[in-house]
């Protein structure tokens, strides 16, 4: 609860601050962050004795990263159900705003349909609204999906140190203790995005694509079965407006271009730019790289193993 409240404050103050250019040096970036190893972060989450403790008591503050279409929402949503913490996806927040005909709807529509990145200000406005709602409903902990997307979003708030907001800002930022970076072949991502469908009646998500890549030249093969809808939904399937080949390729191009630039930059310069945030969290021992080996049947058990959550999943299944 306290973390959600502090993050909400951070988002509100960032909106007023983000238009100001501030130089952030290495000492500022490191302020408030503990150099903890990834193993330590996982152990801290799993130290609930025999695993019977309520996940809400473990203060789950996780982030899912990965390029567009990799499956962040799928796996973040599954972990959300397993651990009983809210899954907050910026993509869902954007789509909700688009369907609401609110004040941001037209602006968002133009940006999304072109495959461009949303501005920090828009993202923070949507997240602030969502966190306030969750706080009012008594939510505790979170799994963020699609945020923070850039280093600027992750560390610009720290620049407020120079504006005397240090304590309340750092309390809301430093509690993110694990970042899961999903990775998948780009040709598979393209096929998956083009195969995505949604039932406009029940809201169910499906995928018509069959991925069948043969192993060759030392590279492993990959198979993903389609996730087909029930007969009652077949005639009601719709495609997201941004799931066209042109838009998906543009989103991937922007992501890859930003990532390559980020790899060549010193950390101090990187922090002042809108670059992918993977290196930022890797340097703090908080990044878990996870290569998806296939579809959900193949990937889900291995992800649980990487997170030391197999026992928790078994106990939940037995209880059901």
From TrEMBL:
<protein>
    <recommendedName>
        <fullName>adenylate kinase</fullName>
        <ecNumber>2.7.4.3</ecNumber>
    </recommendedName>
</protein>
<dbReference type="GO" id="GO:0005524">
    <property type="term" value="F:ATP binding"/>
</dbReference>
<dbReference type="InterPro" id="IPR000850">
    <property type="entry name" value="Adenylat/UMP-CMP_kin"/>
</dbReference>
<dbReference type="GO" id="GO:0004017">
    <property type="term" value="F:AMP kinase activity"/>
</dbReference>
<comment type="similarity">
    <text>Belongs to the adenylate kinase family.</text>
</comment>
<keyword id="KW-0808">Transferase</keyword>
<dbReference type="InterPro" id="IPR027417">
    <property type="entry name" value="P-loop_NTPase"/>
</dbReference>
<dbReference type="InterPro" id="IPR033690">
    <property type="entry name" value="Adenylat_kinase_CS"/>
</dbReference>
<keyword id="KW-0547">Nucleotide-binding</keyword>
<dbReference type="Pfam" id="PF00406">
    <property type="entry name" value="ADK"/>
</dbReference>
<dbReference type="InterPro" id="IPR006259">
    <property type="entry name" value="Adenyl_kin_sub"/>
</dbReference>
<keyword id="KW-0418">Kinase</keyword>
């Amino acid at each position: 609860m306290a973390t959600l409240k502090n993050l909400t404050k951070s988002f509100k103050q960032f909106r007023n601050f983000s238009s100001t250019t501030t130089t952030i040096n290495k000492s500022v970036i490191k302020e408030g962050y503990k150099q903890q190893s990834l193993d330590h972060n996982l152990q801290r989450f799993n130290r609930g004795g025999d695993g019977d403790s309520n996940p809400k008591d473990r203060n789950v503050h996780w982030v899912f990263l990965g390029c567009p279409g990799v499956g962040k929402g799928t796996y973040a949503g599954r972990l959300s159900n397993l651990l009983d913490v809210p899954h907050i996806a910026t993509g869902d927040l954007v789509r909700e705003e688009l369907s609401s005909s609110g004040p941001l709807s037209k602006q968002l529509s133009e940006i999304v349909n072109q495959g461009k990145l949303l501005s920090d200000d828009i993202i923070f406005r949507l997240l602030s609204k969502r966190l306030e709602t969750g706080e009012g409903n008594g939510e505790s902990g979170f799994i963020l999906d699609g945020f923070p997307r850039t280093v600027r979003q992750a560390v610009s708030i720290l620049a407020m140190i120079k504006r005397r907001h240090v304590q309340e800002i750092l309390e809301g930022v430093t509690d993110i203790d694990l970042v899961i970076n999903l990775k998948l072949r780009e040709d598979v991502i393209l096929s998956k995005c083009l195969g995505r469908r949604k039932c406009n009646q029940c809201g169910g998500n499906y995928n018509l694509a069959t991925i069948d890549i043969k192993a060759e030249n030392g590279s492993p093969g990959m198979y993903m079965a389609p996730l087909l809808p029930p007969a009652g939904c077949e005639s009601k399937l719709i495609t997201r407006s941004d799931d066209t080949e042109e838009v998906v390729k543009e989103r991937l191009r922007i992501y890859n271009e930003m990532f390559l630039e980020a790899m060549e930059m010193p950390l101090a310069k990187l922090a002042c730019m809108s670059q992918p945030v993977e290196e930022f969290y890797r340097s703090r021992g908080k990044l878990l790289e996870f290569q998806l080996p296939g579809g959900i049947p193949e990937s889900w058990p291995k992800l649980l193993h990487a997170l030391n959550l197999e026992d928790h999943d078994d106990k939940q299944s037995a209880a059901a």
